[in-house]
Design goal:
Two copies of one chain form a homodimer.
Chain A lengths: L22 H15 L10 E3 L2 E11 L5 E2 L2 E2 H14 L3 E13 L4 H18 L3 E9 L7 E11 L15 E4 L5 H11 L15 H5 L8 E5 L5 H13 L2 E5 L7 H10 L13 E4 L4 H9 L8 E7 L6 E4 L5 E3 L13
Parallel strand pairs in A: 5-6, 10-13
Antiparallel strand pairs in A: 1-2, 2-7, 3-4, 5-7, 8-11, 8-12, 9-11, 10-12, 13-14
Pfam families (chains A, B): AIRS, AIRS_C
Family (chains A, B): Belongs to the HypE family.
Protein name (chains A, B): Hydrogenase expression/formation protein HypE
Amino acid sequence: MTACPVPYEETDRILLGHGAGGRLTAELLDALVLPALGGPEGPLEDAALLPGHPDLLMSTDSFVVSPLFFPGGDIGSLAVHGTVNDLAMRGAQPVALAATLIIEEGLPTAELRAVLDSFGKAAREAGVPVITGDTKVVGRGAADKLFITTTGIGHRTGGLHPSAAAAHPGDVVLLSGPIGLHGTAVLSTREGLGFEGDIASDSRPLHHLVRALAPIGAHVHTLRDPTRGGVAAALNEIARDSRVAVEIDEAAVPVPAPVAGACEILGLDPLHVANEGCFLACVSATAAESALTELRSLPEGAAAVRIGEVQAAPAGRVVMRTLVGARRMVDMPLGEQLPRIC
Amino acid sequence: MTACPVPYEETDRILLGHGAGGRLTAELLDALVLPALGGPEGPLEDAALLPGHPDLLMSTDSFVVSPLFFPGGDIGSLAVHGTVNDLAMRGAQPVALAATLIIEEGLPTAELRAVLDSFGKAAREAGVPVITGDTKVVGRGAADKLFITTTGIGHRTGGLHPSAAAAHPGDVVLLSGPIGLHGTAVLSTREGLGFEGDIASDSRPLHHLVRALAPIGAHVHTLRDPTRGGVAAALNEIARDSRVAVEIDEAAVPVPAPVAGACEILGLDPLHVANEGCFLACVSATAAESALTELRSLPEGAAAVRIGEVQAAPAGRVVMRTLVGARRMVDMPLGEQLPRIC
């Protein structure tokens, strides 16, 4: 379904790009992980329905961000927000979190304390209890400081049943806030690029913003937070799983000036950069204005905008109308751009 | 409550022993993790009740075992059994698993495939679907090959409501199988000690064996699988959380001859060595014979035995009657003995 299909060739060894959320990740999942584990049928969603419990959803993510602390957050708050948001993208409010720590021997206790305090604060602010966990320590050099895995259970409320496979032709594509902040903040901090004074991660919980859409729940067909692989990967996943085309306006996509500047210098496409505090929504055209009003009623949705629309064909295709009036393909990123961003 | 209390002194840096399941782990949890995360009140159990869903339990564990493959199992099967068993220790049958992978760049694809196939096979054999997951890749040297985090949701059935805090004075202490196999198999393989020809891990799912106890569910007060820290840690946790004393007979504890030999040469106490395929049960004296009959009716419980009893006082004390008729304290292991055993 992609424009330039490249046949999958299994590499002998796992590459960094296999974890970057782009095409290599999708190929690893399709070729290796899902056949072995017997994954669920249908599209890969941000969270999965718990068998026998139609209102409960489960989501899990490992967080390996480097560095542990960055402007706008740290691995602790990120590990809460990331999982809360994956649940929210299925219309669920968080019920409980479980957390595991893999700690490298020698990690300063003060750093661990700061991360745990941040994790606890973020969970309290999101209104979700941490009910169980596990701690492992590995020798020096066997891990890089600290990895956190957070698993969440969420409860689907009201009429919200969004799915990556449910976008309809004619839907309007909304974006809840500006893009590119998380990825550029982490990258700049890690590499000492100097942008980190102007850019802070957008890491934040999005479940309140999703709940604000409940009054028009039946019109909210798809929600997706553009984390690894950015807006480009999220839109390509929606187009693939819903078998639709998506067209967006470059002029409408909010890229903060410092992000645009950083991306230009680094040779990055802002559409490929990870976010941790905004989401894409495909909403019935008739409900689009109501949805924008609801989103803008909360601080985290104040900058919500309409960026494009869903079309019937060609299925799987994402196109951007550029500032100069041309149209260019928005491809699924291959995957090597920004390792350890979340 | 311990015999020789040592005041907690926070170290500047995290030590390997903080992850070994003994006293250092307990101190790290009490001093740092639980205050920050606002952990659940009451004792630390193998799995936690999901708020608002009194029959659902959640458990999470990160698996960092080294090497990835060992006699009797590998990190894939272990990552299923460990989580299934933590749910089983609360009387629950597994409903769903979630799995995350943290992969070191350069891991041979064939090794990843073998581990995933083993994970999938173990899940199918345990009758539990893998419903969601996540894959991260970190650079060379930022992890040691592969870590897996498995989170499970379980459903509590029938009359089984065991808790680490529910052991009663007068209870009989049962052990479902021989001890020391997992820890010595992994250690011997890792260090090339040569015992690995005679010893294989006991890694296996225990939920069928727990279900066999359902007919006498009300009499099953406590179940605990003696993983990190071994039987010594598990009994000390039961004695601490139930505020009872436990006394066991050395002659009754089944230590296979190759395990005993390996422990003697390595200077290990078999009671401190991790297991992944047996559990301790505290059961009403009146139901003890029925429990043993039920356990022995399944292959994984064929060697179930009575090893001791629960007493009223002194609370928190675990004592062993030795082969020569003496009585010695069974202390909580400090924690430095066997890193990366699970």
